[in-house]
Amino acid sequence: MPDVIVRVSSAEQISRIMRFANLEKIPVTPRGAATGLSGGCLTVNGGISLVMVDMNRIIGINPVDLLAEVEAGVITIDVDKAASKYGLFYPPDPGSLKTSTIGGNIAENAGGLRGLKYGVTKDYVNALEVVLPTGEIINTGTKTVKSVVGYNLVDLMVGSEGTLGIVTKAVLGLLPAPPARASILATFADMLDAAKTVRDIVAAGVITATLEFVDNVTINAIEDYLKVGLDRSIGAMLLIEVDGQQGAVDIEAAVVTGVCNDNGALSCKQATSDEERNKLWAARRAALSSLARIKPSTILEDATVPRSRIVELIEAVKSIAKKYDIMIGTFGHAGDGNLHPTILTDLRDSVEEAKVEKVIEEIFIETIKLDGTLSGEHGIGITKAKYLKLEISEDAYQLMKRIKKAFDPNNILNPGKMFLT
HSE (CB half, 13 Å, CA atoms) of 16? Predict the structure, then answer.
């Protein structure tokens, strides 16, 4: 538990707090909406919990430069809503977009369903206002399309999990909203056929806006929860969306349908109305909450591999689940190689807890063997710190620690995250 909770409303307030905390060596942990899955906002060493949800102003939308200027506590979907008034949209769309904050998205470099075509948070952060652990307020980045001036501190801050500085304001890139889109639901008897289809769609030259994989365990959990009419008997389904100009959308939808059928799809249907489309995507976004209803403990992982190896990752997860006789529901952004194997268990049982630790470690080992990464979008935080050296060499690990010390000499900002030693 924190020793004190402080709600802040300006960078100047945070600056004063950080100067005092640095002087007295008091730990400070920034906290937004607390939707993170790696424990980034938890006060490991007590101290100050710095709550930033009151810093929620959308300062402005620039429809010519395609920019939004916002405070860190703005809810992700509210940026998109503000942009939509100008015919624009904010592409990053994490599963928590209705509750997560921009500051948290930046800290974790949040991804989302549209990552395959549109990228992730780092691709849309142009400039930042940041309070350093020692209290200085810096502005880094520009509002221009191009800039090569000094070290790229914006990219260093994005994904640093609140360990190097506290983001208070951001200038974010926007894009024109695509005028047309088509959503497709493809079902498969076997989840490996669905995984092969993911690979083949990209190989066919179509970069879909979204390309989501959902296995049988997750399908049944969603159907139990929402009762939207999903077929419980299928091995897996793919939810696919293409967008752009109408002519291009029609062509790409036809190519996607052909690839699905070539890979033995049981069915391949296109949504015929916004209502039907929204129903499909609501089902996908409910995957985690649906799975969480099955067992007392839900552990969602974030394994990511090159999309060419997505089939191997799914096979590995399936094999590990069978080996340890444990239920795993797998879903995720298969188009960019990012899957979320979700372990359903009861951590009150010490035998189960020991088994789960082995399952997680084996999933990560297999992921690294497949040229993958421990985290595609959720970060290291507390939960993955002990696995970091599976991916990062000792020299790189020590370099990261030296960077941390340069920014935060007294290790007061979000301590206990990422680094165990």
Answer: 6
